[in-house]
């Protein structure tokens, strides 16, 4: 190891390595300059027109991350199947939902009864609204026959009322009308004045113009008729 | 057991009570016209022509109200003529049977150049006479006028406010080549020229009793001045002041006028007595205050002012001198007219290059369009009953006077073939 020849060989080897390293660094720098390549000319006009195109590649580049995002979205979906086994585990305590198919097992009579029940509830709701608009004062239970009769009367009186009175007052005439079983007006008594004689007279005229009324439902003999144009406003 | 039976009986009777009565709310009128049967009035053989003319005019005037519709004679189950006016008995069922709501019976009595009309009005539906029997006396030449007055009286008996077929509308027309004042019946018939000075005459306005007419004229070479016409007399200058007076508007109550006068370098509103005296300044703003219109009680005036830069409507309370602005939309609101009921102020608002007529509630400021057309509608003027409005429109090219019901129905053109007709002013009732 102490030989001078060995030392010289080592020095020569080190110098050789250094020279080789310098050469390696220097050669790639020259190759990147492309001194012999002609410059590329771009037509500005053309470059404007395909601006969208130019952006398209950018857009194209953009979707790449989207795809990544989609993939990322897909990834969390994967864990979903994991909870699935849990409901499967709950299938046992869910015999009640399994009852749903049972209505199919109802007899036609039962189905009809059920539909009738549903329709009855709907009719009652609608009837209550109609009664409100026509003003039936049936507290408590709803009578569809009565509501229909009241609505019919409202239309007849509406068509026969000519509000010739010039001015409207804040109160409106109210009449109490007694009917026979056939609907003939027995009496029409003003129970509340509008404060305007001509308005009251026009209301009374509408009642007598409508006489005879349609035959009332069984038992109905008295009507309270309120002429209130503001109710229709 | 008996106790239970009693309880059941009580429950049943309560249920029966609940079904015994019902409440009906009538939410308005179906808009059916009031059907009125008008018989031809009883007349002697020599007065049949007179009677026919009267009947025609009466029927037309009743229908002009837009409230009443005459039942055609061919539908009558009873004689179409009144027979034995004094003792006539009415078979109500025969009139109800043809859909009539009311019946008019009458008699025409002529004596020389005068004529007497006697009448009875029946409420066929309620089966009673509507008001007392009445009579009207007039010259034969005034028979159409009497027919219109009777129609207005019948409208009153059923509605509480008279019809307006006997009222008149004054307007300006350039038919003769100059802007002159004309007067016509409310339905557009009987047009008569009342000025003939070959100058420019504008803005006629009626006194509350419908007998005096004030208007602006440029005659006499003193610029705009106010002149007053009294029925049957020669016109005279209203105010002896050197300043220009652009317009005068009669108060509906107090016999005074609101006058637009240019005084001391500014145009303001003034009040002046009907005889032209006692001039009082009403507005003092630096802007131009014009187009006054009185509230029905005569205590307030609506007017147009440009004091804020654009032409807007203001109301001045004459008692407290308070002034408040009521329009805030648009840059040109003009010619306000307060309804006789006080509920609305009609005015013309510029929309684009044209004007449309709007109604504004003076209290709440709620505004609703009444007459909207691609061409201009301006200068609204209320009928004295507040049911109709006259206005000027250029929808057919020339400026013409129209009337319309305030529900927007029954548009009528009153001045065809009368040149450009502007500035309509509706009179009150003369009696």
Explain the layout of strands and helices.
The complex is a heterodimer of chains A (233) and B (431).
Chain A: H1 4-31, H2 44-48, H3 51-61, H4 63-77, H5 85-90, H6 108-134, H7 144-160, E1 174-179, E2 185-192, H8 197-210, E3 222-227
Antiparallel strand pairs in A: 1-2, 1-3
Helix pairs in contact in A: 6-7, 7-8
Chain B: H1 2-20, E1 21-26, E2 34-38, E3 42-43, H2 48-64, E4 68-70, H3 92-96, E5 102-111, E6 114-123, E7 128-129, E8 134-139, H4 143-159, E9 168-173, E10 180-185, E11 192-193, E12 201-206, E13 212-217, E14 225-230, E15 236-237, E16 244-250, E17 256-263, E18 266-273, E19 280-281, E20 289-294, E21 300-305, E22 312-317, E23 323-325, E24 333-338, E25 345-351, E26 354-360, E27 367-371, E28 377-382, E29 388-396, E30 398-405, E31 412-413, E32 421-426
Parallel strand pairs in B: 2-4, 2-5, 3-5
Antiparallel strand pairs in B: 5-6, 6-7, 6-8, 9-10, 9-32, 10-11, 12-13, 13-14, 14-15, 16-17, 17-18, 18-19, 20-21, 21-22, 22-23, 24-25, 25-26, 26-27, 28-29, 29-30, 30-31
Overview features:
heterodimer; A: 233 residues; mainly alpha; Fusion Protein Consisting Of Minor Coat Protein, Glycine Rich Linker, Tola, And A His Tag, Chain: A, Domain 2; three-stranded antiparallel β-sheet; 8 helices; 53% helix; 9% strand; B: 431 residues; mainly beta; Rossmann fold; Neuraminidase; seven-stranded mixed β-sheet; 4 helices; globular
> pLDDT below 50 for ≥5 consecutive residues: which ranges of chain B?
6-18
- Taking the alpha carbons of the first and last residues of chain B, their distance comes to 79 Å
Query: Considering DSSP H and I runs of 4 or more, what fraction of the residues of chain B is helical?
Result: 10-25%
Q: Roughly what fraction of the amino acids of chain B lie in strands?
A: 35-45%
Number of domains of chain B: 2
Please state the oligomeric state of the protein chains shown.
heterodimer
Overall form of chain A: rod-shaped
Q: Are there runs of chain A of 5+ residues with pLDDT below 50, and where?
A: 28-105, 119-139
Going by CATH, the architecture of the largest domain in chain B would be 6 Propeller
Number of strands of chain A: 3
- Overall pLDDT metric of chain A: 62
């Amino acid at each position: 190891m102490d030989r001078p020849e060995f030392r010289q060989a080592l020095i020569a080897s080190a110098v050789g390595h250094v020279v080789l390293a310098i050469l390696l660094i220097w050669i790639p720098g020259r190759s990147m300059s492309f001194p012999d390549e002609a410059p590329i000319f771009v037509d500005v006009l053309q470059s404007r027109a395909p601006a969208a195109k130019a952006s398209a590649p950018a857009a194209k580049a953009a979707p790449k991350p989207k795809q990544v995002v989609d993939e990322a979205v897909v990834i969390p979906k994967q864990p979903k199947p994991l909870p699935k086994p849990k409901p499967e585990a709950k299938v046992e305590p869910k015999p009640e939902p399994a009852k749903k198919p049972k209505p199919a097992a109802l007899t036609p009579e039962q189905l009809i009864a059920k539909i009738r029940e549903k329709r009855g509830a709907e009719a009652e709701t609608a009837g209550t609204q109609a009664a409100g608009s026509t003003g039936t004062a049936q507290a408590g239970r709803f009578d569809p026959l009565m509501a229909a009769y009241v609505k019919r009367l409202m239309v007849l009186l509406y068509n026969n009322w000519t509000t010739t009175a010039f001015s409207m007052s804040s109160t409106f005439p109210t009449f109490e009308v007694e009917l026979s079983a056939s609907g003939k007006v027995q009496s029409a008594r003003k129970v509340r004045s509008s404060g305007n004689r001509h308005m009251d007279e026009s209301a009374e005229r509408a009642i007598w113009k409508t006489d005879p009324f349609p035959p009332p439902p069984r038992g109905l003999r008295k009507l309270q008729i309120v002429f209130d144009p503001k109710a229709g406003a | 057991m008996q106790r239970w039976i009693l309880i059941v009986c009580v429950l049943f009777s309560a249920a029966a009570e609940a079904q015994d009565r019902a409440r009906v709310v009538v939410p308005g009128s179906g808009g059916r016209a009031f059907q009125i049967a008008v018989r031809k009035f009883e007349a002697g053989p020599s007065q049949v022509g007179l009677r026919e003319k009267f009947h025609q005019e009466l029927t037309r005037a009743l229908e002009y109200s837009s409230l009443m519709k005459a039942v055609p004679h061919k539908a009558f189950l009873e004689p179409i003529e009144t027979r034995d006016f004094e003792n006539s008995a009415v078979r109500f069922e025969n009139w109800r049977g043809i859909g009539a709501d009311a019946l008019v019976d009458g008699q025409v009595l002529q004596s020389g150049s005068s004529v007497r009309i006697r009448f009875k009005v029946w409420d066929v539906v309620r089966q009673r006479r509507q008001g007392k029997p009445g009579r009207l006396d007039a010259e034969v030449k005034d028979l159409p006028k009497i027919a219109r007055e009777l129609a207005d009286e019948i409208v009153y008996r059923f509605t509480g406010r008279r019809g307006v077929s006997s009222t008149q509308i004054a307007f300006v027309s350039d038919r003769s080549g100059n802007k002159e004042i004309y007067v016509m019946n409310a339905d557009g018939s009987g047009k008569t020229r009342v000025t003939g000075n070959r100058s420019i005459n504008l803005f006629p306005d009626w006194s509350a009793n419908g007998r005096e007419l004030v208007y602006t004229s440029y005659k006499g070479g003193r610029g705009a001045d106010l002149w007053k016409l009294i029925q049957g007399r020669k016109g005279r200058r209203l105010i002896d002041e050197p300043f220009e007076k652009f317009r005068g508007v009669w108060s509906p109550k107090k016999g005074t006028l609101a006058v637009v006068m240019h005084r001391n370098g500014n145009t303001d509103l003034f009040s002046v007595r009907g005889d032209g005296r006692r001039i009082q300044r009403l507005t003092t703003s630096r802007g131009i205050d014009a187009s006054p219109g009185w509230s029905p009680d005569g205590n307030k005036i609506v007017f147009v002012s440009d004091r804020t830069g654009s032409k807007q409507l203001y109301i001045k309370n004459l008692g407290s001198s308070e002034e408040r602005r009521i329009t805030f939309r648009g840059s040109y609101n003009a010619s306000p007219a307060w309804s006789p009921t006080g509920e609305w102020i009609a005015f013309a608002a510029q929309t684009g290059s044209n004007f449309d007529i709007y109604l504004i509630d003076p209290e709440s400021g709620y505004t609703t369009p009444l007459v909207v057309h691609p061409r201009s509608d301006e200068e609204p003027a209320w009928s004295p009953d507040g049911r109709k409005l006259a206005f000027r429109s250029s929808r057919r090219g020339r400026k013409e006077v129209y009337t319309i019901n305030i529900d927007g129905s029954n548009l009528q053109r009153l001045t065809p073939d009368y040149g450009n007709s502007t500035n309509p002013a509706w009179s009150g009732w003369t009696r």
